[in-house]
Amino acid sequence: MKRIIILALLFVFLCIAIYILYNFQLGSIPILLMAILFFYIGYQIVKRS
Which UniProt keywords apply (predicted)? Predict the structure, then answer.
């Protein structure tokens, strides 16, 4: 149950961060890198639990 909450929070943070980066018009590369980073963190959390 704790894992699901953590993953949901990560997803919300990812959405907020993508929204902020999109407003700064930095392009898609930083957004892509950050999405990969967030998925990696989420994967590590799921794997460890």
Answer: Membrane, Transmembrane, Transmembrane helix
Q: What is the dihedral of CA 46, 6, 9, 43, to 10 degrees?
A: -10
Cα(47)–Cα(32) distance, integer angstroms: 22
pTM confidence score = 0.50
Minimum mean pLDDT range among 7-11, 22-26, 41-45: 22-26
Closest CA to 18 of 34, 41, 42: 34
Q: What is the mean pLDDT of residues 30-41?
A: 80
> Do 35 and 18 touch, CB atoms closer than 8 A?
yes
